[in-house]
Design brief:
Number of domains: 1
Distance between the termini: 41 Å
Strand content: 25-35%
Largest sheet: 2 strands, antiparallel
Order of helices and strands: EEHH
Radius of gyration: 13 Å
Shape: globular
Number of helices: 2
Number of strands: 2
Helix content: 40-55%
């Protein structure tokens, strides 16, 4: 079975970046963002958590 990978552009900290994820992940990401209705996108939140994890390891 071939996976459907979709590339989309998102804004991350005022920069336009391209992400390639399986369709199911895009659907889940959209559902989570719609559910939480925050002004900060889920992608920005994940990036923030990633940055915190990187800084805590230094």
């Amino acid at each position: 079975m071939k996976l459907q990978i979709a590339g989309r552009s998102v804004n991350l900290l005022r920069h336009r970046i391209s992400l390639s994820l399986e369709d199911d992940f895009w659907v889940a990401l959209k559902e989570i963002e719609d559910e939480h209705k925050s002004s900060c996108s889920l992608v920005e939140q994940i990036n923030g958590w990633r940055e915190l994890g990187i800084q805590s390891r230094r």
